[in-house]
Design a protein that fits this description.
This protein is α/β, with parallel strands linked by helices. Helices cover 23% and strands 29% of the residues. Strands 2, 3, 4, 5, 6, 7 and 8 form a seven-stranded mixed sheet that branches. It has a three-stranded antiparallel sheet with strand order 1-10-9, covered by helices on one side. α1 crosses α2. The longest helix has 23 residues. Bound molecules: inosinic acid and magnesium ion (MG). Magnesium ion binds next to loops.
Length: 186
């Protein structure tokens, strides 16, 4: 079904176990953070499109009362394996003042995307703001512009697809995190 796949980097079962762990930590942290608040507002802000699969898995493991307010971001110009710049393609959620916000994305690479989204949300003065990513690419500490509070897996600096991540819009539906054959990325 996926002849373009080179190898499986993270299998779906391993992902499921890890999402359990992340969800448990997030629940503990949000409960602690909102303890004593009469009507805490929790808002998840997923970054489209890459986060959709991770988001679907994560939210069903969070037995909390929260809203979901998406933001659409695209990297440009055109090149699929590198992000050269970031463009916000949708309105940002408004009214996050005083809310407990959890931003959810597929992967933290250069950090450009998350940095921009985080800074824009910060301007609204949320009560708390945390970042959660399914994957993070390993890189020297001094090159990292931003760190996530919750990281599913730290992976080598390879281009991966599946579990929501795409190449030219394809392969998001692969259940595992995989690499592609070289000739599939021409
Ligand atoms: P950053 O802004 O450089 O951190 O890039 C983050 C965005 O680039 C992610 O949300 C992905 O959409 C995309 N991206 C980065 N690395 C990969 C990859 O290995 N495969 C697929 N998409 C990636
Ligand atoms: Mg993305």
């Amino acid at each position: 079904m996926f002849p373009d796949v080179d190898r499986v980097l993270i299998h779906r079962d391993e992902i499921a176990r890890r999402v359990d762990e992340l969800a448990a930590r997030i629940v503990t942290d949000l409960r602690a953070e909102t303890a004593g608040e009469e009507e805490p507002r929790i808002v998840l802000v997923p970054i489209l499109t890459g986060s959709i699969v991770f988001l679907a898995d994560l939210i069903r493991r969070l037995p909390l009362k929260f809203r979901i307010d998406v933001v659409a971001v695209s990297s440009y110009p055109g090149k699929s394996v590198e992000s050269k710049g970031v463009k916000i393609r949708s309105e940002l959620p408004t009214n996050l003042r005083g809310a407990h916000v959890l931003v959810v994305d597929d992967i933290l690479d250069s950090g450009q995307t998350l940095q921009i989204v985080r800074d824009l949300i910060r301007e609204q003065r949320p009560a708390s703001l945390r970042l959660c990513v399914a994957l993070e690419k390993q890189m020297p500490e001094e090159e990292r512009r931003i760190t996530a509070d919750y990281v599913g897996f730290s992976i080598p600096n390879l281009f991966v697809v599946g579990y929501g991540l795409d190449f030219n819009g394809f392969y998001r539906n692969h259940p595992d995190v995989v690499t592609l054959k070289r000739d599939a990325m021409q």
